[in-house]
C-alpha cells in the first residue's frame, strides 16, 4: 500500500481540490503543525493525498494517481455532475476505468477494482 502521494496545487484551487477528492471518498485530515498552512491533506483508508500549496504548481502531463472506486458508476456520475468530464478508457486487468482531471490539472485514473 502507498501511504501518500503529494500533488502541487495552487492555493486558489485548494478548496475545489478537497471537494474533488471527497467525491472519491477522501476526507480532509489535519496535517502536522509544521506543515499547517502550506498543505491540505485528504485521506481514505490510511492512504493520503497531500495537496502542496504553491503559486506555480506543476501537474505531470501523464503521471497520475489511480484510485479504486468500488461504486465505480456512481462515482463517475458524481464527478460528472460536479463538472468534471469523464474520459472512459479500455479495460485493463479486466477493470473498467476512466480518467478525470481534477482542479489544478491533475489527471486521476478511476478504476472499479485493483489489478489482481
Automatic annotation (TrEMBL):
> What residue stretch is flagged as signal peptide?
none
The record's InterPro entries line, in alphabetical order, gives: Glyas_Bleomycin-R_OHBP_Dase (IPR029068), Glyas_Fos-R_dOase_dom (IPR004360), VOC_core (IPR037523)
The protein depicted here goes by the name VOC domain-containing protein
Give the source species.
Answer: uncultured Solirubrobacteraceae bacterium
Q: Do you know which Gene3D superfamilies this protein is assigned to?
A: 2,3-Dihydroxybiphenyl 1,2-Dioxygenase, domain 1
- Which Pfam families does the record cross-reference, listed alphabetically? Glyoxalase
Please indicate which superkingdom the organism of origin belongs to. Answer: Bacteria
* Domain VOC per the UniProt entry, residue ranges: 1-113
Amino acid at each position: 500500500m502507498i501511504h501518500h502521494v503529494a500533488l502541487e496545487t495552487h492555493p486558489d484551487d485548494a478548496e475545489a481540490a478537497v471537494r474533488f477528492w471527497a467525491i472519491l471518498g477522501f476526507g480532509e485530515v489535519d496535517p502536522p503543525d509544521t506543515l499547517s498552512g502550506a498543505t491540505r491533506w485528504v485521506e481514505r483508508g490510511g492512504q493520503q493525498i497531500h495537496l502542496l500549496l504553491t503559486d506555480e504548481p506543476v501537474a505531470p502531463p501523464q503521471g497520475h494517481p489511480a484510485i479504486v472506486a468500488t461504486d465505480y458508476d456512481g462515482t463517475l456520475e458524481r464527478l460528472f455532475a460536479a463538472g468534471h468530464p469523464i474520459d472512459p478508457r479500455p479495460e485493463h486487468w479486466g477493470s473498467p476505468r476512466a480518467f478525470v482531471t481534477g482542479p489544478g490539472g491533475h489527471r486521476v485514473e478511476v478504476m472499479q477494482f485493483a489489478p489482481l
